[in-house]
Amino acid sequence: MQTKLAARTERVSALPSPDPPETHPGILFPLLILLAGSGCAALIYEIVWLQLLQLVIGASAVSLGLLLAAYMGGLCIGSALLARFVPASCHPLRVYALLELGIGILGLAALPGVPLVGRIYLAGAVQGTPGLVLRGIVAAVCLLPPTLLMGGSLPAIARWAGTSRRGVSWMGYFYSANIAGAVLGCLFAGFYLLRIFDMRVATWTAAAINAAIAAGAWLFAQKWKHWPKSNFEPVGNLPLPRGTHRGITLVLVAIGLSGLSALGAEVVWTRLLSLLLGATVYTFSIILAVFLLGLWAGSAAGSSLAKRISHPRLALAACQLSLALAITWTSYTLAHSLPYWPIDPWLSLDPMFNFELDLMRCVWAILPATLLWGTSFPLAMASIASAGGDPARVSGEVYAANTAGSIVGALAFSLWLIPGVGSRDAEKILIGVSIVSAIVAVLSHTAVSRTAASAKESFLKLSWLRSATAAGVAVLLGWGLVSTVSDVPWQMIAYGRRMAPIMRAFDLYDRASPTKVLFRGEGVNSSVLIAERAGQRHFYVSGKAEASTAILDMRLERMMGHVPALLNSRPRSVLVVGFGAGVTAGSFTRYPEVENLVICELEPFIPPASNQYFGTENYGVLHNPRTRMVYDDARHYVFTTRERFDVITTDPIHPWVKGTSVLYSKEYYELVKQRLNPGGVVAQWLPIYDSDPETIKTELATFFAVFPAGTLWSNNLKGDGFDLVLIGGLDPGPIDVDNMQRRLDQPEYNGVSESIGAVGFHSAVDLLATYAGRAVDLRPLLANAQINEDLNMRLQYIAGLGLNSMAYQRTYRDILQYRRFPEGLLVGLSGGRMDALRTLLHAAP
């Protein structure tokens, strides 16, 4: 009996079943084309659906985590359930065709369906835990149906291949082709479809691809016959040995840990690479494309390897052990190599030139690890495939385990590990996970070897001894690798993509007045650094300077608060979008009328850090009794709140940052307008630097489309400072210069006068002299400007292309060419003040 069990186990591992007729070489290429098309459509859908649903439930880390869990959870469940609910007698290509057709139909339904779900969600939206549960339900309702079908596509078509050595290799090629299509979909959507068109066209394109795949698969099913029983007949009547079942479970654990480390690494490395390359929509597309490219190449290599090796579990263990080395390589590259490459983004204003540099840096850093993750997948399928087994179950179980691990990795690293221990320790954990996965894969091989050799006690002891020795060596290797991991230089967080040229420029300056890092932190959404140099404190967020105590920055931050507050006759309720250094929010604490000051901030650890180092400049706004902090995505808060405000001021990060364009969209401004009280005023920050003329025109045209009586105010001081403040409102009337000055002269307004006086505004005339134009005068300049809308996200695409533009001075001059003294807007009975204002506006640059 023992001899039969041993023979049975050997047959399980060796995959001796004959090749089925379906694996004729001439059939492979058409099937790979179908799988590639499926992957292309899936990536387009993923990008579109996540952007659409972020408009409903927000773009906070928790909301993104819920969306990711729903999307990948559907893939996981679909892959695990198909073999259980779809009989093996069904033609695999017909099943595949029906799945693709269903995906296309549900994809088209998302365009009208998501806004409908948004209206239902708005009716019941609440804060706290019930609100998070509701967000999760929305994500599940919208994403689970199509992703269940997506998850079932690989197991469905895997039944065409069987579980022979060639069949398992084919399943790996199917997976590889699907990933190759995903690479194309990522680049096609990120660099063309969404840049040129919008989410509607992208969805129609993906649905058309689904329809073509479904038609092709159905036609092939008519042409090619399927013999299901030849694949799934059991070998003998003996049950699988106990060790085999245990070995299969360990393989699934190993590939699950591999998925965990892969998505965890993607989260960590995307965060760090986006600091260095600039967090544009194109950067994220390049990083994702390189990641998928490695998975494709690795899975293709692993598929070829799977039909040649006798011990795929040991090969899987070797891959996971090598991953620990590859992760260490990436951590070293990100900390000690890439930041110091002498790359100046201003060397060329051609975006494609800079994209090529970004692509090479991503390949250099992350491709080695992604190759190994890709290789692991087909090796895992080869490790659990048995002669006569159901290939849908084999591929489905491996895919489900890998995806389940990916969900855990993505959520754990983004929501807990990076904000909890930082990127450096997160990379150390990734190395440890790979070591554990390698050990588990070795144990899976030992479990099968133990059953096959249970009659040979000496061999059994030797097998476990070898496993223990291998585990010990792996642990020692992991310990050594972990000790080499370092933090990325603080300059990456401060200067980002301009690190190399700025460090060269500051080299001599810093020797005389070195920069002192006061605070460094990583949250769920961003990395923050506060530093002091030459007596000035600077606040950096993810590679961008957001605030400082320098006079120009303080002047802008105070303008964002005081201009709208003084244009409103009685600002009792105020909403500030974005805390930053807290200077803008603190400006409102100087007004005696303000009773309710709501500050909406995405990153929870920013306000306490800013309060510690900018507390004097922001008047301790965080602890002011009138202040109420709301930690949420601003778009989501404005969408769901039922409060109304007299002043709403939005100070978001730069428009070229991926996802920020929703705070510069026409729909966002319409939401803001709905939240204003009668006579309410809205202010919006608009930077001219790091932008080209097309970007600036789109920003202005979009704002003025909602606020046609809007005005423009400039922070330019003696030819320096290129920030604008957009002002709009409900029922805007004339601005009475005398009335504003009377308010400033009142004793209760001493705090306001002191606040604006500290940045060079000593009267109402000084403040109003920053006027730079209004919508009616700028119409000729904005005649052909595109409007940034939710469905096209136009701004993030054009702003990402114009990021390195040096045309901000020319753009500012072009705007001022249309400035006229605004008769009827600026009024006053005092001839002296009006004459002074006319003189200043005429002389201002």
Offer a quick outline of the entry.
The chain has 29 helices and 14 strands. It has 845 residues and is of the alpha/beta class.
Characterization of this structure:
- The protein is an alpha/beta fold.
- The chain folds into 4 domains: 1-16 and 243-484, Growth Hormone, Chain: A (Up-down Bundle); 28-223, Growth Hormone, Chain: A; 490-544, no CATH class; 549-843, Vaccinia Virus protein VP39 (Rossmann fold), CATH 3.40.50.150.
- 64% of the residues lie in helices and 9% in strands.
- The protein contains 29 helices and 14 strands.
- The strands form 3 sheets. An 8-stranded mixed sheet has the order 7-6-5-8-9-11-10-13, sandwiched between helices.
- Helix 19 (606-614) links the parallel strand 6 and strand 7.
- Helix 3 crosses helix 13 (391-452) and helix 4 packs antiparallel against helix 7.
- The longest helix is centred in the middle third of the chain and has 62 residues, at 391-452.
- The protein is elongated.
- Mean pLDDT is 90; it is low at 1-18, 229-243 and 452-462.
